[in-house]
Design a protein that fits this description.
The chain has 323 residues and is mostly helical. Helix content is 76%, strand content 1%.
Length: 323
């Protein structure tokens, strides 16, 4: 397992290096950083001095070396728009994104897996057909459209749930959470359902497909021939083998929820890193944009690594292949 882990770490380091280079190259194509730092009255001589102080006159490879060295040290510069350290801005908004992602992913798993198991065990029932029709709607509708529908119905027509913001939060020193207030829980319902709906339907359809395939396997027929109870066959043998590929896909989906919840955060004005990213793009705030891209890469790499390790422990074929 140690060799497997080292190989995955090496691959992850290559991915992060490529993403870091891509983030660095954004400085070359998103505009002149000096133009974001000075006013119209700044003279050409002063602009030249600023460029020299920032190292923008150095060769490209030298600039990338300085950029990579700062990234390794956790230094991502100042936001052009807000004039604050980028890591402080990210740290302030990351709890909101992680809490929203956690609730959305929990809903997707807790509802999607049981529905998928039911649809796989009873593929011809009327309830299964209704579930599959609704899942097509859930997987086809755009996220912003789902969010707007929920806002209009539950926020405007019924007026029972907030339609924007995070509600009241409690500052724990190292973390700001809305899980300790009533308004925080009410505020997270609509964005969490909006963000988790696609993941829910995707996981449900995946579990159903895997259950249908596993139930036709020879070891299931053998278990029935031995006279094992149906509940034991379904939930101990079939479900266990179904969740092995689902675990891999679910890990990637969790990374996607964190990284690509931008639309949901924008619709509900959720104060997370996704909304910060959109604001940075509109203001050409290059340090914030590049830091967000690196953070997304780190999230995917870490989630992928964890899933690979779990998959390695669950699936004996990987251990045999490694040997």
């Amino acid at each position: 397992m140690l060799f497997y882990l080292l190989r995955r770490l090496f691959q992850s380091a290559i991915v992060l290096a490529v993403v870091a280079f891509g983030s660095f190259m954004m400085f070359r194509f998103m505009g002149d950083p000096v133009a974001q730092l000075v006013s119209e009255e700044t003279t050409l001589a002063d602009r030249a001095l600023i460029r020299q102080s920032l190292g923008l006159d150095d060769p490209l490879i030298v600039q990338f070396g300085h950029f990579a060295a700062r990234v390794v040290q956790g230094e991502f510069g100042l936001s052009y728009q807000m004039g604050q350290p980028v890591m402080r801005l990210i740290a302030e908004r990351l709890p909101a994104t992680l809490e929203l992602s956690f609730v959305a992913f929990s809903l997707a798993l807790l509802i999607g897996i049981p529905l998928g198991v039911f649809a796989g065990l009873k593929p011809n029932s009327i309830i299964t057909r209704v579930i599959m029709i609704l899942s097509l709607a859930g997987i086809s509708m755009p996220t912003f459209f789902v969010g707007l529908l929920l806002m209009v119905y539950f926020g405007v027509e019924l007026a029972i749930l907030p339609t924007f913001g995070r509600g009241e939060t409690v500052d724990l020193g190292f973390w700001t959470t809305g899980f300790l207030t009533k308004s925080g829980w009410l505020s997270i319902i609509l964005p969490a359902v909006t963000l988790g709906l696609f993941q829910l339907t995707f996981i449900m359809r995946l579990v159903r497909a895997e259950m249908l395939e596993v139930m036709r396997a020879d070891f299931i027929r053998f278990a029935r021939a031995r006279g094992l109870p149906a509940r034991r066959i379904h939930f101990r043998h079939a479900l266990k083998n179904t969740l092995v590929p689902v675990m891999t896909i679910a890990g990637l989906q969790f990374g996607s929820i964190i990284a690509f919840g931008i639309i949901t955060e924008s619709v509900f004005q959720w104060p997370g890193i996704g909304l910060l990213f959109l604001q940075a793009i509109s203001a050409v705030d290059i340090p914030v944009v590049s830091t967000y891209l690196l953070l997304v890469a780190v999230i995917f790499v870490v989630v992928n690594l964890i899933v690979d390790m779990l998959y390695y422990m669950v699936d004996p074929r990987l251990r045999v292949g490694a040997k």
